[in-house]
């Protein structure tokens, strides 16, 4: 399975490089909620720890209210419109884009697109663990051009994954926006068209992320030990071959993640490989000119089967947020959640995620202009569709394409400007099989 689509709505912040040296003004904020990006950064880019400490699976107690924020209330119906949408364009060799209204094309709210052996599946559900967005359901496409809605699934939030059977979707209940979304049912399809309710998964707690391959499915969940004010959150990594029956897995010491510090465990997959990321709790204290700040150790683990895991190496800034995949490389987006002034970062890998290299110039985008005290960030946005990466610069009507995430070629750009909005958010770029969506417009690849 490959995961690609909409870039997350981060502000322009990226962690200042000085954080990795002197901890100039780093204040760890022990927030109760974990904020993760959808589509998916740290202290100066230290290498992840090479140690792997097994952990005993935590008790399967459901998460209490407040461990993960619920979705924003909505009045939209739980199922998608019956209308299909079209995303024309070339599948490779893009030199520019022909633009039409995104509302008519149906791409305005897409947040996740997966490629599988039957074509593609798309959903509006966000992939942000602990902050699910309400989805109208799923669309499927055999060719990336003509998309058909899946109307059989009526759950408001739907997380979808490649699976041995073909596709598995996990439906979540989002009735109360103040409590974590709870698992309702698993749905399976071998062709992307006909879906069957195969029962309620035995996943404990609140699901954070899910990803799969033809070998199986990996999920990360947020659970709780204890009850009431004494309850402490913890995390599990779970494995399944059918989406209903799950067993806990031991992967390093990711279960020691601590709420409010870095990222909880979250998983992606691409081309038959799993990528499991997370922050293994606070492991050190640094004294600076400001109050003592705890530093969390970030880890990334790789697997071909979802059962046996190997830790990656190399440096990347702050905490691993999400990966964009290309034909010849990968880009890791990082997030300095929990630190002030915060920020985001990039790293790239050309060996399948085994080794990461910090990219402090943000590909072809460069650093966003900054006046006064602010974090570092890219001057634009980057997305991918599993084959090509697309980078679009703020304001300058400039764009580039890359297949390895490190070497970039300029291409023509006459589409929307991905500049930050009045709320400080970056409008999401979704890179589809045949073009790109941005600011309510669809650009067919040419």
Could you please describe the fold and organization of this structure?
- The chain is 1% helix and 39% strand.
- With 446 residues, the chain is mainly β.
- It has one domain: 6 Propeller (Neuraminidase).
- It starts with a strand and ends with a strand.
- Residues 3-79, 283-293 and 421-426 have low confidence and may be disordered.
Helix content: under 10%
> Mean of the pLDDT scores?
74
Indicate the CATH architecture. 6 Propeller
* Radius of gyration, CA atoms, in whole angstroms: 20 Å
Domain module tally: 1
CATH topology: Neuraminidase
**How many E-type strands?**
31
Describe the largest sheet: 6 strands, antiparallel
Beta-strand content bin: 35-45%
Oligomer: single chain
* Highest CATH level, the class: Mainly Beta
Q: Strands across the major sheet, in which order?
A: 1-4-5-6-7-2
Question: Termini distance?
Answer: 26 Å
What structural class is derived from the secondary structure elements?
A: mainly beta
Number of helices: 1
Global geometry: globular
Low-confidence stretches: 3-79, 283-293, 421-426
How would you summarize what this structure contains?
This protein is mainly beta and 446 residues long. It has one helix and 31 strands. The protein is globular and about 55 Å long.
Question: Can you lay out the helices and strands and say which pair or pack?
Answer:
Layout: E1 2-4, E2 85-86, E3 97-101, H1 102-105, E4 112-116, E5 119-123, E6 138-141, E7 146-150, E8 157-163, E9 166-173, E10 182-189, E11 196-199, E12 206-213, E13 216-225, E14 232-240, E15 247-249, E16 266-270, E17 273-286, E18 293-303, E19 310-311, E20 313-314, E21 319-325, E22 330-335, E23 344-349, E24 355-358, E25 380-384, E26 389-393, E27 399-402, E28 409-411, E29 429-432, E30 435-438, E31 441-445
